[in-house]
Amino acid sequence: MRDLLTHFLNSIRLKRQHIVLLLLVSFALVVMAVMAVVLTALQTVAVTANALDESRSRQAVSGALSTLKSQMISTMVDYTAWDAAAEAVYSPESKDWVLENFDLANGASEIFDAAYLLGPDGGVLMAFRRGEPFSMRPAEFLSPAFDGMAKAVRRAGVEKGAEAAGFVKTAEGVAIVGVSNIRGLSPDVVVPKDRLQQLVFIRHLDQGRIDSIAENYLITGLRLVDAASVPPGAALVRDPAGRVIAGLTWTAQAPGDISYHRVRPYVLAAMTIVGVFVFLLVLAGSIVIGKLRGDEIAARKMALTDRLSGLGNRLGLFTRLQEMIGQAAGTRDDVMLFYLDMDGFKEVNDVYGHATGDRLIKSVAGGLTHLIPEGAILARLGGDEFAIALPVKHGTRPARSLEVLIQDFFTEPFVLGERVVTVGVSVGTALSPLGSIDAEELLRRADIAMYKAKADGRGRAIAYDAEMDAALAERKSMEAALRAGLRNNEFFVVYQPVVDAKTQRIAGLEALLRWNSRQMGAVSPEIFIPLAESSGLIDKLGMFVMGEALRVIRKWPQIGISINVSPAQFRNPFFIPGVTRLLSESGVSPQSVTLEVTEGYFIHNPGHACGMIDALNGLGLRIALDDFGAGFSSIGYLRQFAFDRLKLDRSMIGALEETPRGREMLQATLALAAALGIPVTAEGIETEEQAIFLRLCGCDQLQGYFFSRPVGEADLPALLGEYAAPGTVSLPA
Question: Which of 264, 275, 386, 510 has the smallest count of CB within 10 Å of its CB?
């Protein structure tokens, strides 16, 4: 019995050992299987992450190449598609203009390191490489793919597609090459196809350029390789004919491998310590998943962020604004949008360079970040435009509204390193009551209001109202009519006499532009002149007035002519050459011509204004300060600028009878002019009493309806010739 019991117990113990062994083996197999599955999963994640990173790098490089082409096409259009270029390049003496304006001899150009100006037959008119004359023809320097691209562009003439860009093999390597036909934009500038010239810019993909791409797109080890050495997976560089001429390779970062090698020891340790292997397994998985999720969040954030300022970009604003409007609809609140555009930002870029402009953008972004209330959205929409969106209680506004804080913020100068700059801001606001206006429409309304603020003088905030849409449509219609009026010769010039205050003899004429539209009838200059300035048509209108006035005054050389000049014309670099040409063609003495410029231009652009006045004085022309007393009326710039005459605004004349102190103000102004030795003309004289008072106060010339209304060219002989006296012309008593 005892032996039987011992055998039974031994048998049970053996079975238990087998079971434990089986469990241990099973557990070991499970652990090994789980380990294999986990390690395989981690390997797969690593491979996937590597592939995603490789794909991102490839897409970034391909996008960079496409961006280079787009930038080159935009550059070619900027250089070649403008009226002044077409008029100058196809003139007999164009070489100096081309060298100055196309900057072909600039050895430090960031746009190109070689350039050609090709004639109608494809022959080389000019060629420069790194600022020095260049003797190699395009067929020698560039691969045949360029010839096909240039011919295709030439066939386009002056129509759409008259420019192209592509990567071309050159004698020095691989380059981005742009070619464009030089043509005008307006229908008035006609370029015959048999005279068509082409501008060619060549910018080689040197290592510095490639390093810049790598820095911008966060790619390590980016380099250019020959077409024969392009490895699989590289970004291909193709010429316009589709041939592979090079490739771009980079050093793979393999973030998946890095993550995998970091995680594997912990996973193995977890598997060996059975009690905690589940915890370590979950932890390892969490690390991997967290990294991938973090990469996804970072990529999404980057897509919605402006790189320069660090704020949200236009897409980011639109996304968050739509969410804010949705929340406002649920809470029955309003959403207010502020659309900001800096006044004077372009001048900062032009004077101090784009690096200073970028620092200004960052400074403004930092200041606005601290200015906006909690819960608001701040974004940079591009250029010098910002937007702020915030929820507000329905029907309420803060005691001190945000637009006031914004205006106060921009009144202070910005210190940018060693430079101090001052800019203003124009603000347009729009409201989505109870979230009823979607993001796209809200942005449009705020944008319209912002442009209204700019049109009304800048440096102000204006809220959107429905009439702005009607005004915008009316403005577009008026601009179309203005262009049609130029084509149909609907503009003409009238002349108002300027008389000597003592003798009341005519001392000169002022040329005034008038428009008799076929559609609208007579249109006031107060309406069409600002429109012409904002639409870019003022240069053509101004030259038309000057040409007509010089042609007419040539018949009466004994009297002077005054011509109004828009500030926009003063900003045009071709204004001085145009005036020189008209004077030469007319044969009129420059000493008898006075150009009248409003005072506001000298306040905002003193440096440029000095240069323009010196140049015009060099031609022998006289400069008058027009509308004095209507705005700034600073004594400082009266002393700073060498004005030949001061012209009082009609508002000062009207103040003689409207305000008790009008006479004192006028007398003080004339005394100031006398002290500075500047002769004075008063316009807007409508009564004999006004004329007598101004003559007694020392005003030497008078102008107004009391003497004569403006008359057309046909009436000038009766006005001038009938009352002519030696050296002067007088009005009838």
Answer: 275
- What pTM does this model have? 0.48
Among 334, 341, 364, which residue's Cα sits nearest to residue 430?
A: 334
- Helix, strand or coil, per DSSP, at residue 244: strand
pLDDT in tens, 100-137: 888 887 878 888 999 999 988 888 988 999 889 988 99
State the residue for tokens 């996973």: 267
Chain centroid offset of residue 329 CA: 35
CB 681 within 8 A of CB 624: yes
Structural contact between residues 150 and 200, judged by C-beta atoms closer than 8 angstroms: yes
Residues whose CB falls within 8 Å of the CB of residue 569, separated by 6 or more in sequence, listed in order: 538, 539, 542, 575
Two tokens at 673?
Answer: 């002019």
Helix, strand or coil, per DSSP, at residue 205 = coil
Catalytic residues: 683
Cα separation, 35 vs 280, whole angstroms: 12
Which regions of 504-545 does DSSP assign to beta strands (E)?
Answer: 505-517, 521-523
Of the segments 241-255, 296-310, 354-368, 718-732, which one has the largest average pLDDT value?
354-368
Q: Which residues contact 209 (CB under 8 A, 6 or more apart)?
A: 203
User: What is the C-alpha to C-alpha distance for residues 178 and 164, in angstroms, rounded to an integer?
Assistant: 6
- 426, burial (CB in 10 Å: exposed 0-12, middle 13-18, buried 19+): buried
Residues in contact with 89: Cβ distance below 8 Å, sequence separation at least 6, in sequence order? 97, 98, 182, 197
Do 170 and 141 meet the contact criterion of CB atoms below 8 Å apart?
yes
- As a whole number of angstroms, the distance between CA 43 and CA 413 comes to 57
From residue 680, alpha-carbon distances to 28, 195, 552, 595, 676 in Å are 107, 52, 25, 14, 11
Higher pLDDT, 384 or 56: 384
Residue 181: half-sphere exposure toward Cβ, Cα within 13 Å: 26
d(CA 50, CA 52): 5
Q: What is the DSSP letter of 679?
A: -
For the range 444-448, what are the long-range contacts, defined as Cβ-Cβ under 8 Å and sequence gap of 24 or more? 445/337, 446/337, 446/338, 446/339, 446/387, 447/339, 448/472
Whether the CB-CB separation of 413 and 363 falls below 8 Å is answered with no
Around Cβ 551, how many Cβ atoms within 10 Å? 16
Strand order in the sheet with 173-181: 132-133, 124-129, 114-118, 198-204, 173-181, 163-170
> For 168-203, what is each residue's pLDDT tens digit?
999 888 999 999 988 888 888 888 778 889 899 999
Short-list 713, 716, 704, 708, CA closest to 492? 713
Q: How many CA atoms lie within 13 A of 524 on its CB side?
A: 2
Task: Identify the DSSP state of 193.
Answer: G
Distance of CA 697 to the CA centre of its chain: 49
DSSP 234: P
* Beta-carbon-side half-sphere exposure of residue 512 (alpha carbons within 13 Å): 17
Neighbours of 28 (CB within 10 A): 11
Q: What is the DSSP string of 51-62?
A: HHHHHHHHHHHH
Could you tell me the CA-to-CA distances from 352 to 102, 294, 417, 621 in Å, in that order? 21, 40, 12, 31
Read off the amino acid at residue 105.
A
Phi-psi category of residue 217: left, alpha or beta, with phi > 0 → left and psi -120 to 50 → alpha: alpha
